[in-house]
Amino acid sequence: MSHVRPADLLGVWRHARAELDWSPWPGPRPLHGDDKEVLVGRDEDKARFRREVTSHRLILLTGMTGVGKTSLLEAGLVPDLRESGYTVGLCRDWSGSADETNSVSFLSSKIKSQLEGQVDFDLPDGARLFWALNEKLNERCVIVLDQFEELIRDAPVLIDALFKLLVEVNRRTHLRVVVSFRSEYLHELAELEQKVQAFSLTHVALSPVEPQYARDIVVAPNRRPGHQDRPAITEAAADRVTKLWRSALEVPTDSHEERRGVRIGLLHLQGLLYVLASRCSGRTVEGVDVEKLASAYPSAAEVFRTGLHLAVHEKLDRCRRAAQHPDVRLDRYLVDGTLQMVVDAVTHLSSAGYKLVRDVRDLAEATLGDRLDSLHLGIERCGAGLGEPDGAAQPEQERALLGAVLDLILPDRSIEELDLLAASRAELAARADGSGPRTATMTWLERLHDGRTGPEVDAADVTCGPMLGHAPAAVLIEQLRRFVFALEWLHASDLVRISTPGTGGAMIALIHDGFGAALDEWARAAGRGPSGELAAITAPRGGSFDWDETPEPPVSEVAEPRLLVNLRWRGAWVTARFTDVVFVNCDFRGTGFSRCVFDGVAFVNCLLDGAMFTDCEITGDPPPAERQWFPHAPRFVIPGPEDVVSGLEHYLERSSGATAVLSQLPGLPAVPLFDGADSGPDDSGPALQLTERPAGLVVLGGRVSTLMIRACTFSGDSALSFRHVGGSGLDVVEVAGGRVEIVGSALRHITFSAATVRDAARRGLQIDLVTSSIAQLWVSEGVVGTLAADNCMLLQVWNGSGETEGRAANCSYHGLVGVVPDAECVLLGPDQAVAAAGDVDADGTVHERVRRMDYRRDPHRAVLTPAEAAAQLPAR
């Protein structure tokens, strides 16, 4: 049954993630206003701050990154001031449009939005706001400008004007202004300090929380209302964490941890507590829980370092789990693709232990990398099969497209805006066209080609996976959707800040330097498996996929084979263990499978031109084949897991509740089996139902050309089976033992040669040809085994091995060496060495059969009759 998506899908995901992210401790994030109980060790700082606000108009609050400035403001200073009767406007979001270069309107709009609802009088716009606040509230109004370094760093033109405004407010009003920023930016405010009213400015430098407050931090959640009967942590566990903390702080300056640049701080303590709560799944943390975690690491410092890393890992995993929430149910391609996008992005956010400030546009280019280059080529050549190609998009168009998608996660997004996750590609394209250059020769909406799919629109072969055959512009939109959703994962996890400080662009940076190493470690672990490549929508350029260590579930634990649909790994080199896997309409031209294990694997209508299977292991005996010759290449209907079928539907932007995948012809994308989609043209091949569990290695349909099977081994009675395959050039070399069968296929130039190890060759190779058209088959000297042909058309078969018994039953043939035909076999043409083609093929049967062997650049055209060529994919 299809899933109806809510209009505010991003909001539903955020809510689901927030529910999953609950913890008694805040974890590695700034405190919020409702975290007052866990703000510990800051009483003296709060008292001092109150005194400074009373006696000074401008307060500079500084501290090192991660020291807790924002936490102190949110959970301590601002609530205390409000309880004391002050009106406080806390401004932290410095996002703004590029034309907001007027410092007065920029700052007044931010302050006004934070004060609305706190005062009982109208708030004017512009400079009049400050005079109204001074008249009505005077010194009882406090304006807090947090994260001010973002403006200093990212908006230098705007900051100069803002300094002038702050000087005027300081000199002409009694309003209190607090400017909070990282201490390394203090020198940037030297001119401001010189120009303000004498004795009206003070500087509050925030230091780290003293170590003696560690235990109070650990047990702080127990003081919250309702936690007395069910504490978050036992006294014994709190004592153990506190002892570990003190040991970690006693690390000498020349220690291994210090040399690695690891300085244990409050962030690490909160990270460890967050991980303990996660592992206890809502129950009270006990001493044994702390001991179990601590015993896994060699030192206390390593416990806290790892605790922060595990906390970051857990936060990102909760983003993934929220995407799979029953109320959200994002397709797995989007989820896995977004996770891979996070993996690719985080490596560009820090260097040598320090966070980097990145322009989001630059980060997008660095993250997408080769994918973006491929899509540029695809966009330029798109539509070449329909006539003139579309041509390249303008750089301004691409910037507008990224902005149109990125805007949908920014804090100031209006409720009427499109939803990042629910918006259609056409809606996003139209939004980008509205803000893009008017001189563009072709709009993004036009580049979508009305959702048409097929090789004609993807003329450069750059698409992949659920978007195979889509317009490259559509794929670019989906890649940007993934990229922006990846930024949302990081932002929702309180790992990064994103702002648009009036510069026309967006900036992103980690919240804390310490997150860099944790994210790098997470990325190495998360990128180790195949999920990113399996969810790809842009074809990777070659590459090496080594998943030899990726665990696979035992066959008995797999409910149904895993469908991997429309992959395009051209020129890649793959090492993996594949168990119960069905590849459908994949493009593996030039792909090398090395040291792979194939245990119940099928390749359905895949392109295997130039592919190589070397030193692989084949396990299992395939189920019986359909022993029938079809004049036209058959299509295949594969019952699919709901996540695969619904994912394909999602990218076609339709929902019909399909439960199977239709594999039509090699070179075309597989599609969900919509109503009537399996009927096909009148003269097309039948639709074969694939319902049996695969075993061994089976190639069903598809095209081969110079395919090599080299030095592969067969366990027990395992087999390699080619069924309903067309093409030319199949080399099975250095193979000993096992069984190779060719059923219902049309193949030319087939070679079998002996293994290099003579003893291995003695195991015997069984070659079975069934209901197939075979031209020019060669068995080399030294091959031990049998060659049996049944109900085949054989043209020039040479068995040059005296150790291979060759026999043919009920076949038509011309030119047999080392193969004995039975009485039912029929000789094609005269029994002579030289004959004319017409003598051998008087009725055209041979010509008709070998048509499926001929190579074509576009293989789906090679097997189409004129009537079939006119047929399109199922109507959308």
Question: Can you walk me through this structure?
Answer:
The chain is an alpha/beta fold. The protein folds into 4 domains: 9-25 and 211-330, no CATH class; 42-205, Rossmann fold, CATH 3.40.50; 333-526, no CATH class; 572-638 and 682-861, no CATH class. The chain has 29 helices and 36 strands. The strands form 5 sheets. It has a 22-stranded parallel β-sheet that branches. Strands 2-3-4-1-5 form a 5-stranded parallel β-sheet, with helices on both faces. A 4-stranded mixed β-sheet has the order 20-19-18-21. It is elongated, with a radius of gyration of 34 Å.
Q: What is the percent of helical residues?
A: 25-40%
Largest sheet: 22 strands, parallel
Shape: elongated
- Integer tally of domains: 4
What's the β-strand tally? 36
Mean pLDDT: 86
Regions with little confidence, pLDDT below 50 for 5+ residues: 257-261, 549-559, 863-876
Look at the helices and sheets and give the structural class.
Answer: alpha/beta
